[in-house]
Write a structure and sequence with these properties.
It is a single chain. This protein has one domain: hypothetical protein yedk fold, CATH 3.90.1680. β4 and β5 (about 50-55) form a beta hairpin. It has four helices and 13 strands. With about 260 residues, it is mainly β.
Protein backbone atom coordinates (compact mmCIF):
# COMPACT_ATOMS: atom_id res chain seq x y z
CA UNK A 1 0.00 0.00 0.00
CA UNK A 2 -0.11 2.26 -1.96
CA UNK A 3 0.02 0.34 -5.26
CA UNK A 4 -2.15 2.37 -7.67
CA UNK A 5 -3.11 6.02 -7.82
CA UNK A 6 -4.48 8.82 -10.00
CA UNK A 7 -2.32 11.54 -11.57
CA UNK A 8 -4.42 13.56 -14.00
CA UNK A 9 -3.46 17.17 -13.26
CA UNK A 10 -1.11 19.03 -15.59
CA UNK A 11 2.38 19.85 -14.29
CA UNK A 12 1.52 23.54 -14.48
CA UNK A 13 -1.51 23.03 -12.21
CA UNK A 14 0.60 20.99 -9.80
CA UNK A 15 3.29 23.66 -9.81
CA UNK A 16 0.72 26.36 -9.05
CA UNK A 17 -0.77 24.35 -6.17
CA UNK A 18 2.60 23.72 -4.53
CA UNK A 19 4.19 27.09 -5.32
CA UNK A 20 6.72 25.51 -7.65
CA UNK A 21 8.03 25.80 -11.20
CA UNK A 22 8.05 23.25 -14.00
CA UNK A 23 10.32 22.76 -16.98
CA UNK A 24 10.53 19.39 -18.64
CA UNK A 25 8.56 16.45 -19.96
CA UNK A 26 4.77 16.57 -19.68
CA UNK A 27 3.28 13.21 -18.79
CA UNK A 28 -0.12 12.07 -20.10
CA UNK A 29 -2.95 12.07 -17.58
CA UNK A 30 -3.16 8.70 -15.92
CA UNK A 31 -6.09 7.49 -13.81
CA UNK A 32 -4.38 4.19 -13.06
CA UNK A 33 -0.73 4.86 -12.23
CA UNK A 34 1.09 1.58 -11.59
CA UNK A 35 4.57 0.75 -10.29
CA UNK A 36 7.40 1.57 -12.75
CA UNK A 37 5.28 4.33 -14.37
CA UNK A 38 6.69 7.86 -14.48
CA UNK A 39 5.09 10.31 -12.05
CA UNK A 40 5.45 13.90 -10.92
CA UNK A 41 7.24 14.82 -7.74
CA UNK A 42 7.82 18.14 -5.97
CA UNK A 43 11.33 18.80 -4.66
CA UNK A 44 13.13 21.82 -3.23
CA UNK A 45 16.46 23.08 -4.49
CA UNK A 46 19.22 24.36 -2.22
CA UNK A 47 18.14 27.95 -2.93
CA UNK A 48 14.67 27.22 -1.59
CA UNK A 49 12.89 27.13 -4.94
CA UNK A 50 10.40 24.31 -5.44
CA UNK A 51 10.38 22.35 -8.69
CA UNK A 52 8.06 19.79 -10.25
CA UNK A 53 10.11 16.98 -11.78
CA UNK A 54 9.47 13.57 -13.31
CA UNK A 55 10.38 10.42 -11.36
CA UNK A 56 10.26 6.68 -12.02
CA UNK A 57 7.91 5.14 -9.43
CA UNK A 58 9.89 2.39 -7.71
CA UNK A 59 13.04 3.44 -5.88
CA UNK A 60 16.33 2.48 -7.53
CA UNK A 61 19.15 3.19 -5.04
CA UNK A 62 22.50 4.45 -6.34
CA UNK A 63 24.09 1.08 -5.51
CA UNK A 64 21.55 -1.01 -7.45
CA UNK A 65 22.88 -3.25 -10.23
CA UNK A 66 19.80 -2.72 -12.42
CA UNK A 67 16.27 -1.31 -12.49
CA UNK A 68 14.56 -4.49 -11.32
CA UNK A 69 14.82 -3.60 -7.64
CA UNK A 70 12.54 -0.61 -8.22
CA UNK A 71 9.42 -2.77 -8.62
CA UNK A 72 9.97 -4.05 -5.06
CA UNK A 73 10.53 -0.59 -3.57
CA UNK A 74 7.40 1.34 -4.43
CA UNK A 75 6.62 1.90 -0.73
CA UNK A 76 8.68 2.62 2.37
CA UNK A 77 7.31 2.09 5.87
CA UNK A 78 7.38 5.28 7.96
CA UNK A 79 8.29 3.30 11.06
CA UNK A 80 11.58 2.02 9.60
CA UNK A 81 12.85 4.54 7.05
CA UNK A 82 15.39 5.81 9.56
CA UNK A 83 16.83 2.30 9.89
CA UNK A 84 16.63 0.55 6.51
CA UNK A 85 19.89 0.96 4.53
CA UNK A 86 17.99 1.71 1.32
CA UNK A 87 16.10 4.60 2.91
CA UNK A 88 17.90 6.14 5.87
CA UNK A 89 20.34 8.23 3.81
CA UNK A 90 17.54 9.48 1.56
CA UNK A 91 15.41 10.37 4.59
CA UNK A 92 18.12 12.82 5.61
CA UNK A 93 18.28 14.81 2.38
CA UNK A 94 16.25 13.34 -0.51
CA UNK A 95 12.64 13.96 0.43
CA UNK A 96 9.84 14.89 -1.97
CA UNK A 97 6.09 15.23 -2.25
CA UNK A 98 4.23 13.02 -4.72
CA UNK A 99 1.00 14.76 -5.79
CA UNK A 100 -2.00 12.63 -6.64
CA UNK A 101 -5.74 13.12 -6.95
CA UNK A 102 -6.48 9.89 -5.10
CA UNK A 103 -5.43 6.27 -4.81
CA UNK A 104 -6.98 2.81 -5.01
CA UNK A 105 -7.14 0.05 -2.47
CA UNK A 106 -8.93 -3.29 -2.62
CA UNK A 107 -11.42 -4.16 0.12
CA UNK A 108 -11.76 -7.83 1.02
CA UNK A 109 -15.55 -7.67 1.28
CA UNK A 110 -18.35 -5.16 1.54
CA UNK A 111 -21.81 -4.18 0.43
CA UNK A 112 -20.57 -3.43 -3.10
CA UNK A 113 -18.60 -6.65 -3.54
CA UNK A 114 -18.63 -7.73 -7.17
CA UNK A 115 -19.03 -11.34 -8.20
CA UNK A 116 -16.73 -13.66 -10.10
CA UNK A 117 -17.95 -16.02 -12.81
CA UNK A 118 -18.32 -18.61 -10.08
CA UNK A 119 -20.58 -16.29 -8.14
CA UNK A 120 -18.10 -15.64 -5.34
CA UNK A 121 -17.44 -12.12 -4.00
CA UNK A 122 -14.26 -10.51 -5.31
CA UNK A 123 -12.17 -7.84 -3.66
CA UNK A 124 -13.81 -4.48 -4.22
CA UNK A 125 -11.61 -1.70 -5.63
CA UNK A 126 -12.13 1.55 -3.73
CA UNK A 127 -11.14 5.02 -4.91
CA UNK A 128 -9.89 7.08 -1.97
CA UNK A 129 -9.48 10.84 -2.21
CA UNK A 130 -9.69 14.02 -0.16
CA UNK A 131 -13.20 14.94 0.97
CA UNK A 132 -12.59 18.49 -0.33
CA UNK A 133 -11.25 17.16 -3.67
CA UNK A 134 -7.93 18.96 -3.25
CA UNK A 135 -4.79 17.08 -4.39
CA UNK A 136 -3.10 14.75 -1.95
CA UNK A 137 0.43 15.72 -0.92
CA UNK A 138 2.04 12.34 -0.28
CA UNK A 139 5.40 12.08 1.46
CA UNK A 140 8.12 10.24 -0.44
CA UNK A 141 11.85 9.74 -0.93
CA UNK A 142 13.87 10.00 -4.12
CA UNK A 143 17.17 8.71 -5.47
CA UNK A 144 19.37 8.96 -8.54
CA UNK A 145 20.85 5.98 -10.40
CA UNK A 146 22.92 5.45 -13.52
CA UNK A 147 23.69 2.19 -15.29
CA UNK A 148 27.45 1.86 -14.85
CA UNK A 149 27.59 -0.79 -17.55
CA UNK A 150 26.33 1.80 -20.05
CA UNK A 151 29.37 4.01 -19.55
CA UNK A 152 29.97 7.49 -18.14
CA UNK A 153 27.60 9.12 -20.63
CA UNK A 154 24.59 7.10 -19.45
CA UNK A 155 21.57 9.14 -18.42
CA UNK A 156 20.65 9.52 -14.77
CA UNK A 157 17.39 7.98 -13.60
CA UNK A 158 15.42 9.80 -10.91
CA UNK A 159 13.18 7.43 -8.95
CA UNK A 160 10.90 7.65 -5.93
CA UNK A 161 9.03 5.68 -3.30
CA UNK A 162 5.84 6.46 -1.35
CA UNK A 163 6.00 6.51 2.45
CA UNK A 164 3.17 4.65 4.19
CA UNK A 165 1.95 4.63 7.77
CA UNK A 166 -0.71 2.89 9.85
CA UNK A 167 -4.29 3.34 8.63
CA UNK A 168 -6.58 5.88 10.29
CA UNK A 169 -10.16 4.95 11.21
CA UNK A 170 -11.40 5.86 7.73
CA UNK A 171 -8.94 3.55 5.98
CA UNK A 172 -8.92 0.71 8.51
CA UNK A 173 -11.96 -1.14 7.09
CA UNK A 174 -10.17 -1.34 3.73
CA UNK A 175 -6.48 -1.73 4.58
CA UNK A 176 -4.13 -1.49 7.55
CA UNK A 177 -1.76 0.94 5.78
CA UNK A 178 -2.16 4.29 4.03
CA UNK A 179 0.12 6.88 2.38
CA UNK A 180 1.51 9.64 4.59
CA UNK A 181 -0.47 12.78 3.69
CA UNK A 182 1.30 16.03 4.43
CA UNK A 183 -0.73 19.15 5.32
CA UNK A 184 0.36 22.40 3.66
CA UNK A 185 1.74 23.60 6.98
CA UNK A 186 4.46 20.90 6.87
CA UNK A 187 5.49 21.10 3.20
CA UNK A 188 8.37 23.51 3.83
CA UNK A 189 9.71 21.43 6.71
CA UNK A 190 9.54 18.21 4.71
CA UNK A 191 11.00 19.52 1.46
CA UNK A 192 13.87 21.55 2.90
CA UNK A 193 17.03 19.54 2.01
CA UNK A 194 19.00 21.39 4.69
CA UNK A 195 16.61 20.28 7.43
CA UNK A 196 18.41 17.53 9.36
CA UNK A 197 15.99 17.36 12.29
CA UNK A 198 15.11 13.72 11.71
CA UNK A 199 13.13 13.45 14.93
CA UNK A 200 10.97 16.36 13.86
CA UNK A 201 10.55 14.92 10.38
CA UNK A 202 9.58 11.56 11.80
CA UNK A 203 6.75 13.24 13.69
CA UNK A 204 5.20 14.22 10.35
CA UNK A 205 4.86 10.58 9.28
CA UNK A 206 1.56 9.85 10.99
CA UNK A 207 -1.95 8.88 9.83
CA UNK A 208 -4.06 11.71 8.43
CA UNK A 209 -7.04 12.93 10.49
CA UNK A 210 -10.09 10.72 10.00
CA UNK A 211 -12.12 13.42 8.24
CA UNK A 212 -9.58 14.16 5.47
CA UNK A 213 -10.42 11.24 3.19
CA UNK A 214 -13.55 9.80 1.64
CA UNK A 215 -13.98 6.79 -0.66
CA UNK A 216 -16.34 4.91 -2.94
CA UNK A 217 -16.39 1.61 -4.80
CA UNK A 218 -15.31 1.60 -8.44
CA UNK A 219 -15.34 -0.85 -11.33
CA UNK A 220 -12.99 -3.83 -11.44
CA UNK A 221 -11.75 -2.34 -14.73
CA UNK A 222 -9.08 -0.66 -12.57
CA UNK A 223 -7.56 -4.10 -11.97
CA UNK A 224 -6.09 -3.99 -15.47
CA UNK A 225 -3.17 -1.53 -15.68
CA UNK A 226 -3.84 -1.05 -19.39
CA UNK A 227 -6.99 0.87 -18.47
CA UNK A 228 -6.04 4.50 -17.83
CA UNK A 229 -9.17 6.61 -18.38
CA UNK A 230 -11.23 8.87 -16.09
CA UNK A 231 -14.13 6.40 -16.00
CA UNK A 232 -12.09 4.33 -13.53
CA UNK A 233 -12.88 6.72 -10.67
CA UNK A 234 -16.65 6.72 -11.26
CA UNK A 235 -18.71 5.27 -8.38
CA UNK A 236 -20.27 1.89 -8.91
CA UNK A 237 -22.79 0.08 -6.72
CA UNK A 238 -24.08 -2.71 -8.92
CA UNK A 239 -22.28 -6.09 -8.66
CA UNK A 240 -20.97 -7.40 -11.97
CA UNK A 241 -21.14 -10.97 -13.12
CA UNK A 242 -17.62 -11.29 -14.45
CA UNK A 243 -14.26 -9.86 -13.38
CA UNK A 244 -12.07 -7.72 -15.57
CA UNK A 245 -8.75 -9.31 -16.53
CA UNK A 246 -6.02 -8.42 -14.09
CA UNK A 247 -2.26 -8.36 -14.35
CA UNK A 248 -1.97 -9.52 -10.75
CA UNK A 249 -0.74 -6.25 -9.26
CA UNK A 250 -4.07 -5.03 -7.91
CA UNK A 251 -3.76 -4.00 -4.31
CA UNK A 252 0.02 -4.30 -4.42
CA UNK A 253 1.49 -3.94 -0.92
CA UNK A 254 5.23 -3.90 -1.13
CA UNK A 255 6.14 -1.68 1.81
CA UNK A 256 9.65 -2.42 3.07
Amino acid sequence: MCGRFVSSHSPDKIAQFFGASFEGETLPENFNVAPTNDVYGVVQAADGAREVQVFHWGLVPSWAKDLKIGSKMINARAETIGEKPAFKGLFKKHRLIIPMEGFYEWQQAGEHAQLSKAGKPMKTPMFIHRADDQPLAVAGLWATWRDKAAGPEAAWLHSCTIITTAANDTMAPVHDRMPVLLPASSWAQWLDPTNTDLAGLQQLLVPAPDDVLTMHAVSTAVNNVRNKGPELTAPTTAPTGAPTATDGSAGLTLGL
